[in-house]
Design goal:
Distance between the termini of chain A: 54 Å
Helix content of chain B: 25-40%
Shape of chain B: globular
Number of strands of chain B: 19
Number of helices of chain A: 13
Strand content of chain B: 15-25%
Helix content of chain A: 40-55%
CATH superfamily of the largest domain in chain B: FAD/NAD(P)-binding domain
Strand content of chain A: 5-15%
Distance between the termini of chain B: 55 Å
Largest interface: A-B, 57 and 67 residues
Radius of gyration of chain A: 24 Å
Shape of chain A: globular
Number of domains of chain B: 3
Number of domains of chain A: 3
CATH class of the largest domain in chain A: Mainly Alpha
Largest sheet of chain B: 7 strands, mixed
Strand order of the largest sheet of chain A: 2-1-5-3-4
Order of helices and strands of chain A: EEHEEHEEEHHHHHHHHHHH
Oligomer: heterodimer
CATH topology of the largest domain in chain B: FAD/NAD(P)-binding domain
Chain lengths: 318, 557
């Protein structure tokens, strides 16, 4: 089948310092991947195209890039699955949120710095046993879901928080942090959770789900971040906007059966946090203009007892 | 110019294990790799790592015998003894560092069965054991603060009066060329799969380390022993782990017949890899294949079991062959997978060139001989990576740097200039493909005198064409075009040594099967073929196999 690719090119040594899109047209068979197409370009059409790739089987993590605006591995993205229906070319771009070095090659240094900052190594307590540490198979199987992260950076590429805040640790580093917090052999939870509770840590995720969608290995970084939030709070770190927000959310729904949106920001920020309270005024005015102000008197929904029963059940299950 | 006590080339399992050992010994260590460490090809090892743990009722001697028999009695028994004896400690060390491993009911490390072994002694992390171990070692490297030259390409080793004193290397990101002096260099740059087409190997497996060491005076041994893995996916050639058969998968031909029952009544699908690959190819050649393939049937294992233990290969089969192994059998074929041979090294990694060590797939100790057992490669990297690290550090403590300066990079600089200014039009991709296809055709599962001779002629042509290879990219920044061209040179050299060694061995042993000489000849061939670079010519010599306790017998599975 005939395939059209539009590849974003950038050559830092050229006088033309902005990137541009170059179109390639080629014959590919139905089983071909985006990586096959790029290799064909590189070998037969245009040897100057630069990209990272190695294993061709979604395990080395080298070829994360954006195809039609979404991050993924070029080697397990089939051409036939991403051909736009309107006849326009498939758009191939470097991964986002990282500086471009050349063509589809990005600078991973910020990514590795994030990963290294979570002290990504096992920190067990006391002397090593003579044989292996004993650990339940279920715990290890659970961890296998995170250990299978190949650090390809697809999640970081498309993270909507990193787009505006480079201080955020990002989904890959946080998933890596979870891998150790969730490990029964690791004894540094207290220290790890305290760090993760700080600015740039677990509370800065906006839960947009993008990392879960683009992860080629099913690691679900956002779910790990949510688990970390729980562990952070269980460890007694309840004095953050995020923790208070989560608590207020739960309390409100348990009490009345639905969310009291007026009280939520007050409880999250704290009533005496004047700066935050004043900061909310423009939002309140805009909401009022748009007719989106919640009722001043927050009534319980009918049958609220059933909601509370659900809460009890869930809590007992834990 | 930079100075280090120990410079390790390659940051896969062998390289990083060596780096840890050398760092622990208290010397200054640097790793250099053309890719970031976690992109290394050790990632691709799926099934597991072998070790005979005494507290599981296993014995290292049994593991050693299985390995020796697997090697078709070409493996050196002293080295195999060391590897099998130290296996348990290495696996436990990896667990202590953080490797998760699947567990048994008591929470101890669990095992699965693997090919050519009478005991289930393969420890594993689902079906991505290599990746799990590689990431753990990288974590330890980060913890130790070891220096890594990430995405630097080694152009040559520096040799002075027969000693190795460092390397000339290029920063891929900037094109900058530097001389790095080292009191000891450990070559741990992995295999050469891309010499063949297709191969399960990553695109970075281009034989750099074997060729670099060979140029610096080290010998290559057992190069004719190229492993064809029995289960690679139809079409793409992507690897489907031996763990599939270890967990109970069947091999079926077009008549729905479990053909391995006939060839290997005792071990069946879990005979040694060379044996199973030959049987598959025989079925295919005799017309009982399906479109050049046979079938791998896992359906009886059930969805839950498959997704818990073989999740990755299930995904791979879906992504790359459109087959859900829970519902239908997977079409597979033998595919080039591993190079048993490599840089001749002893059990401490010493290559015979003072200052140059080798470990991992790049090396030939020789623990795999004519055929490597599944899950012995990870073990090889760790045991001999560690030992090389220890011994290289020891040397570094007692020697000083050779008198080398920046002029050591002169030849490499000129060579690159020459390549960049070449305006002839022959693409590296086409040359590599033609070389790979010739290697598969003439040095594949079955070999034969006249066919190999024809293969050697084809290689000569390939070499001539490579003289006029064209580098389209003239820039310094991330010039992958230039890198591939340099790699092509390494690959051709490796291909030649494989071809001349294979042509030289006039018997069938392990992975080297000649249809014109089908029998093993212990009288004349209990010896390794050693290739040495003598004034640009491949000079062949021989070395007797080291036999300790196990006399060669008829090999049956």
């Amino acid at each position: 089948m005939e395939v059209k690719l539009s590849v974003r090119r950038y050559d830092p040594e050229s006088t033309n310092t902005v990137s541009h899109y170059q179109e390639y047209q080629m014959e590919m068979d139905e089983a071909s991947t985006i990586l096959d197409a790029l290799i064909q370009i590189r070998e037969d059409v245009d040897g100057t195209l630069s990209l990272r790739c190695s294993c061709r089987s979604a395990i080395c993590g080298s070829c994360a890039m954006r195809v039609n605006g979404e991050a993924g591995l070029a080697c397990n993205t089939k051409v036939i699955d991403v051909i736009p229906s309107d006849g326009t070319p498939i758009v191939v771009e470097p991964a986002g949120n990282l500086p471009v070095i050349k063509d589809l090659v990005v600078d991973f240094q910020p990514f590795w710095n994030q990963v290294k900052s979570v002290e990504p190594w096992l920190q067990p307590a006391g002397e090593e046993p003579e044989a292996e540490y004993l650990a339940p198979d279920e715990d290890m199987l659970h961890l296998a879901g995170v250990v299978s992260c190949i650090l390809c950076g697809a999640c970081v590429s498309d993270c909507t928080v990193l787009e505006v805040d480079s201080n955020f640790l990002g989904p890959a580093a946080l998933a890596k942090a979870y891998r150790f917090v969730g490990d029964p052999r690791d004894d540094a939870d207290a220290k790890r959770l305290e760090t993760l509770n700080q600015e740039g840590g677990v509370w800065d995720c906006t839960r947009c789900m993008k990392c879960v969608e683009v992860c080629p290995k099913g690691v679900a970084p956002m779910d790990r971040i949510m688990s970390l939030r729980e562990k952070v709070m269980d460890a007694g770190h309840t004095n953050t906007n995020g923790a208070r927000h989560a608590t207020a959310f739960v309390d409100s729904v348990r009490h009345s059966g639905w969310l009291d949106e007026l009280k939520l920001p007050i409880k999250s920020f704290g009533i005496f946090n004047l700066k935050a309270m004043i900061g909310l005024i423009p939002l309140a005015i805009r909401s009022q203009r748009a007719g989106k102000v919640p009722p001043l008197i927050h009534k319980n929904i009918p049958d609220v007892e059933n909601v509370r029963k659900i809460f009890d059940k869930v809590e007992n299950k834990k | 110019m930079y100075d280090h006590d120990v410079l390790i080339i390659g940051a896969g399992l062998a390289g990083m294990r060596a780096a840890l050992a050398a760092t622990e010994a208290g010397v200054d260590v640097a790793l250099v790799s053309k890719v970031h460490p976690v992109r290394s090809h050790s990632n691709a090892a799926q099934g597991g790592i072998n070790a005979a743990l005494t507290d599981r009722g296993d014995d290292w001697r049994d593991h050693a015998y299985d390995t020796i028999k697997g090697s078709d009695f070409l493996g050196d028994q002293d080295a195999i003894e060391i590897m099998c004896r130290e296996a348990g400690d290495e696996v436990i060390a990896m667990e202590h560092m953080g490797a998760i491993f699947n567990r048994d009911e008591e929470g101890r490390l669990g095992t699965r069965s693997f090919g050519g072994q009478r005991q289930a002694r393969t420890f594993f992390v689902a079906d991505f054991t290599g990746q799990a171990l590689l990431h753990v070692l990288y974590e330890q490297i980060v913890k130790a603060g070891a220096l890594v030259y990430e995405e630097w390409f080694v152009l040559s080793l520096i040799e002075r009066d027969g000693e190795c004193g460092g390397a000339v290397m290029m920063d891929i990101k900037t094109g900058k060329i530097e001389v790095v002096r080292a009191k000891a260099v450990i070559m741990a740059a992995g295999g050469l799969g891309r010499v063949f087409e297709p191969s399960t190997n990553a695109m970075i497996c281009t034989g750099d380390g074997m060729s670099l060491a060979y140029q610096a005076g080290a010998s290559l041994m057992d190069m004719e022993m190229v492993q064809y893995h029995p289960t690679t996916l139809k079409g793409s050639g992507v690897l489907i782990s031996e763990a599939a058969r270890g967990e109970g998968a069947y091999l079926l031909n077009s008549e729905n017949d479990r053909f391995m029952l006939k060839y290997a009544p005792e071990f069946k699908e879990l005979a040694s890899r060379d044996v199973v690959s030959r049987c598959e190819q025989t079925e295919i050649n005799e017309g009982r294949g399906i479109d050049g393939c046979v079938l791998l049937d896992l359906r009886h294992l059930g969805e839950k079991y498959i997704s818990e233990r073989l999740s990755q290969i299930r995904e791979l089969a879906m992504d790359f062959a459109n087959v859900d192994m829970v519902k239908e059998p997977v079409p597979i074929m033998p595919g080039m997978h591993y190079q048993m041979g490599g840089v001749k090294a002893n059990v401490d990694g010493e290559t015979g060139v003072p200052g140059l060590y080798a470990a991992g797939e790049v090396a030939c100790v020789s623990v795999h001989g004519g055929n490597r057992l599944g899950a012995n490669s990870l073990l090889d990297t760790l045991v001999f990576g560690r030992r090389s690290g220890v011994h290289a550090a020891e040397r570094a403590k007692h020697t000083s740097h050779l008198a080398i300066d920046d002029s050591a990079a002169k030849t490499d600089r000129e060579n690159i200039q020459k390549l960049l200014s070449n305006d002839k039009n022959e693409s590296f991709g086409k040359i590599r493909f033609d070389m790979g296809t010739a290697m598969k055709e003439h040095f594949g599962v079955f070999r034969e005198d006249s066919s190999m001779a024809e293969g050697i002629n084809k290689l000569n042509l390939v070499k001539q064409r490579a003289e006029s290879v064209y580098v389209a990219d003239k820039t310094k920044t991330f010039n992958t075009n230039l890198i591939f061209t340099l790699e092509l040179g390494f690959m051709i050299e490796c291909a030649e040594t494989i071809a001349s060694s294979a042509y030289n061995r006039t018997e069938s042993r392990g992975a080297h099967t000649r249809t014109d000489m089908p029998d093993r000849d212990d009288e004349n061939w209990l010896k390794h073929i050693v290739v040495t670079n003598k004034d640009g010519k491949h000079h062949i010599s021989y070395r007797d196999v080291i036999i300790t306790d196990w006399t060669p017998t008829v090999r049956q599975y």
